[in-house]
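Allow me, if you will, to draw on your knowledge of protein folds for a short while. Thank you for your consideration; the sequence and its tokens are set out here:
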Amino acid sequence: METDPRRRNPEDVKRLFARVSARYDAINRAMCGGLDVLWRGRLAKTAAALARENGGGGGKKYLDIACGSGDVCARLLGEDPDCRVVGADFCPEMLALAREKCGSRAEFAEADCRNLPFAENSFDAATISFGFRNFADRPACLREIARVLKTGAPLCVLEVARTEGPLFEAAQKFFMCSAVPLIAKVFGGRREDYEYLAKTTMDYPRRAEVEKMFANAGFGEIRTRAMAFGMVAIVSGKKRETA
């Protein structure tokens, strides 16, 4: 499948995630040694803390985009018992898993990030976990997210990151292109599906370019928190007044 986000067919990506949905959580845990649970927890805590900084009292409204099986939605509900959480994903099979995981405490919508079915200034924070690199038009998606966020509200993105230095780059390439597809196959996934996901990791832009995308879409106070020897990062930014 085409790895260039500008050329790949979104329907191909949707079919891929439909195929992997039944084993999605198990393969993620295996690939990351369970660390993805910790990272998603940090994402939820970061979003909740930045939303509180923006004021307005309790009962925040969160949007989790490309919500997948609902892990981050569940973590956001745990961060704020009075909050409202909306999960959006374009894959119905993933949304079914998320509804089962979160029950009636969260709302879910089948939606593409380029055209979110929400009004302007609707949300106190937005999150994305390991979905941003699959977006066909990342700048357009960032602008659309800014549209539905309140002024000062944060967007927090947990995603793979490109490591720095030849040694770490070689280690990341080996892990993503050789180990990840093998792990996926052992746990019942299709090797070729995870070869595609590995390639999207190696094609993902570096930190400065990601931060520039945030700034161009109307976000300020942009920060990157690197984890796992720089292979994973949380990028956050707050919607500026002019966004």
Q: What stands out?
A: Strands lie at 61-65, 84-89, 106-110, 125-129, 154-160, 219-227, 232-239.
